[in-house]
Prior knowledge:
Layout: H1 7-28, H2 34-54, H3 64-84, H4 88-111, H5 116-123, H6 125-158
Helix pairs in contact: 1-2, 1-4, 1-6, 2-3, 2-6, 3-4, 5-6
Amino acid sequence: xxxxxxxxxxxxxxxxxxxxxxxxxxxxxxxxxxxxxxxxxxxxxxxxxxxxxxxxxxxxxxxxxxxxxxxxxxxxxxxxxxxxxxxxxxxxxxxxxxxxxxxxxxxxxxxxxxxxxxxxxxxxxxxxxxxxxxxxxxxxxxxxxxxxxxxxxxxxxxx
Length: 159
């Protein structure tokens, strides 16, 4: 079993939390504007980090979660290509599907008592609260900063 002190586990957990927090913001708000595109790029980057880092966490060897990571990488890559081609419904389907897969993996990781999430919750709940709080703050800050930059550039374009 991996421990939370493993750097790859921390990178994986923080990136996955960022994906889980920022995903609903992307799905709920208006699509196809600059804020959506900039936050989408950050979300996509975090998704890639989440998937790639999962291959550094293989205490029992390759599992269905690693298969999900491969599928998710293919899905978000396809979603990015579809956005570039302006095929919005396919783009949305790929990205929402990738998000749902990440949420399912999170539920599995949180539900199994021997997984790092459960062990860390029991042994260092303050650390979990700090990490989750930091990720939520980072996601909110990213959203507000991007929105402010986009609004400022729109005002300057109107002048």
